[in-house]
């Protein structure tokens, strides 16, 4: 089989041409993030929240783990897979949730934030799945995998009212600058928007004002200068759609566009990486802004996603992806932008190819144990502490559900379920091309079904043979983490350690 270069992608480029395309982004001073610099008062707060977590947590819910894994090992209908995955997640959420579904204490390693913030993530990152299933099924009640009926509308309605009520034990709290809950507010707002016909529209005026008041906190808060700008924007778009009140911060949106470097790629902040946050962060959020308000900058949002997918579609194999960057535990969301592009009628990818990439990605990871105790594991397959960033907690991996959320949302409208699958590019041919905007080469070898992405520029010169590896947590830090309930793990972003080449065989992670 001969090597083929994709259309619109140059196979070679001079270093001078690459350098001419490097975009300089003016950096801003990074704000001091409290949880990154804990003092004695914060350590005491963390310890108290750790004790509350121990009191509130429930036994690990493994009732359907083997059943789900076996299902994803089969060449099963995608609609059935998505429906069962949503039910698996919902049933476990009802098991772990407390205080009228406003918090959920999942088992797993803690983040740098408090155990209570981790429990907010256990709700914020799961409710969009419930809301998307509601949109998909148009049924208020779900029949769980154990046969029990779950009132999805009631769960959602209670969660929003409890979480936004200062007098309720499940109150989500007063937000502050660089608060993790600012990030979580975006997923909560999305869930509210997706379920508006069943939840928001049935609230009284006083209840709507209560919910809106909590979300409006994001309007005056400082965030880190990277993809985080998209979180308050999502909240503001939802509030405008639901209440008519326009608080959209256009400066934040323009800053996001400053991070755009071409070929569909964004740098994650002025000094950030190019990694999979483009897939499950930037383009995911921009897709929802476009869905909430289709008249807001559609030309840029559609074209940038289409340009991204034009090259990104070559990353997918039947077994694995060339992973690079942080948050590897979000791996199930890798195909989210492919589905989003299809929904936006992009010519860069067919429905059949997007469907195949999405299904195979789920089959590969879930079929090899990526879901456990009702949640995506903190790793690639089974739990792997080396791959859990310090900002990630027990429920952070639910960002992995972002592909599922889009599939449930657009599947009926776009005939995703009925479409015939088309072969992935690696199943058709070998290829070799550059993505000039991020100075990366993509090489696919059809005979071995392997894809290698190699960056042509070092991220850091401060490295040695022992630094270019995944480090394990020390016993001392593990003990401290268990005592305080605060992450004390090594930073294992291989891009920042000096690794420049990544294979879909994912050998770096094993």
From TrEMBL:
Residues 84-423 form the DUF2264 domain. Pfam families: DUF2264. Transmembrane segments: none annotated. This is DUF2264 domain-containing protein.
């Amino acid at each position: 089989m001969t090597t083929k270069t994709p259309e619109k992608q140059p196979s070679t480029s001079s270093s001078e041409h690459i350098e001419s395309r490097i975009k300089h982004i003016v950096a801003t001073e990074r704000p001091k993030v409290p949880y990154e610099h804990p003092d004695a008062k914060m350590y005491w707060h963390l310890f108290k929240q750790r004790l509350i977590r121990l009191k509130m947590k429930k036994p690990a819910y493994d009732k359907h783990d083997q059943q789900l894994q076996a299902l994803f090992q089969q060449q099963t209908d995608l609609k059935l897979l998505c429906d069962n995955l949503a039910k698996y997640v919902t049933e476990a959420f009802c098991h772990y949730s407390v205080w009228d579904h406003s918090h959920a204490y999942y088992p797993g390693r803690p983040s740098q934030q408090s155990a209570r913030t981790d429990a907010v993530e256990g709700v914020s990152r799961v409710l969009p799945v419930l809301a998307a299933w509601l949109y998909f099924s148009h049924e208020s009640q779900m029949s769980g995998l154990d046969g029990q009926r779950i009132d999805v509308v009631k769960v959602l309605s209670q969660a929003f009212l409890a979480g936004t009520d200062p007098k309720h034990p499940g109150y989500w709290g007063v937000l502050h600058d660089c608060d993790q809950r600012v990030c979580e507010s975006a997923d909560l707002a999305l869930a509210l928007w997706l379920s508006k016909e069943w939840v928001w529209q049935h609230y009284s005026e006083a209840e709507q004002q209560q919910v809106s008041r909590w979300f409006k906190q994001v309007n005056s808060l400082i965030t880190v200068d990277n993809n985080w700008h998209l979180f308050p924007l999502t909240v503001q778009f939802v509030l405008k759609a639901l209440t008519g009140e326009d608080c959209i911060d256009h400066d934040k949106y323009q800053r996001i566009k400053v991070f755009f470097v071409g070929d569909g790629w964004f740098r994650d902040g002025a000094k950030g990486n190019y990694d999979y946050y483009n897939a499950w962060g930037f383009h995911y959020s921009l897709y929802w802004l476009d869905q909430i308000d289709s008249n807001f900058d559609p030309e840029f949002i559609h074209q940038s996603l289409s340009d991204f997918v034009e090259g990104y579609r070559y990353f997918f194999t039947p077994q694995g992806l060339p992973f690079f960057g942080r948050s590897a535990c979000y791996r199930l969301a890798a195909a989210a932008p492919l589905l989003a592009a299809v929904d936006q009628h992009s010519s860069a990818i067919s429905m059949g190819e997007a469907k195949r990439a999405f299904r195979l990605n789920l089959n590969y990871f879930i079929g090899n144990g990526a879901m456990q105790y009702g949640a995506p594991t903190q790793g690639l397959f089974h739990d792997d502490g080396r791959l859990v960033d310090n900002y990630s907690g027990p429920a952070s991996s639910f960002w992995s559900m972002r592909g599922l959320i889009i599939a449930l949302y657009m599947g009926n409208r776009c005939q995703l379920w009925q479409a015939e699958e088309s072969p992935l590019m690696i199943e058709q041919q070998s290829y070799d091309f550059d993505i000039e905007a991020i100075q990366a080469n993509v090489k696919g070898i059809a005979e071995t079904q392997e894809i290698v992405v190699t960056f042509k520029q070092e991220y850091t010169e401060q490295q040695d043979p022992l630094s270019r590896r995944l480090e394990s947590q020390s016993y001392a830090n593990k003990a401290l983490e268990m005592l305080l309930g605060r992450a004390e793990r090594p930073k294992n972003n291989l891009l920042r350690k000096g690794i420049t080449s990544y294979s879909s065989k994912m050998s770096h992670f094993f």
